[in-house]
Design goal:
The chain has 207 residues and is mainly α. The protein contains eight helices and three strands, in the order ααββαααααβα. Strands 2-1-3 form a three-stranded antiparallel sheet. α1 packs antiparallel against α8, α2 runs antiparallel to α5 and α2 runs antiparallel to α8.
Amino acid sequence: MAKNQSAGTAPGQSKKLRSHAAAMTKLTPFPRISFIVYIILCVVALLPWLCIYNTDIPGIEIKVSGWNAFFCGLTGKLTTPGGVFGNMDTFNYFAPDACKPLALYGLLAYALLLAALILNGVMLSKKAQVLHLPSAVLGLGAAVFAVLGFTAASNVNNSNILAEYCQSNPACSVESYAIFTAIILLVAVIFNVIGAVKFFKAQSLLK
């Protein structure tokens, strides 16, 4: 009797394992795609989170990139010129109330982004698909802080930087491309969420 039960159970269990293996195989592209998106985001971080654009040049006169904001937030140096800090010193002179949160949001956004990048790298190398969910949470958090960074940069318009630094030149405007970071982050989050859903569905096949 026990032999018959064992014989009847084995084929069913084997079928579950095959279905699970097939489902897990379909998950393979998701960590690869999300990892690539996060790598792209590291390059996009070179775009200005805050800048003065002059249509007379045309081009950017001074700027604070995403990485500049990250390092300003990491070190607390908003008055040091050049280097990894960009032109934060100039913007901070005219709009310190906007630049302090900008540096903080830059730090938090890219810290979470780098953590998500590492998790996706682990997924890719170790096939640890269970990391899709925490990666999605980190990516979503980074997107929120990128939006807050965009808002902080927009608040620089409330200062007198255009009147004094740009001498009220109508060709000059305060711009921010931080919103593009948030949008691309959401793309990575979507792939992570889809990967998480498919992973948990694959796991349910073993029950």
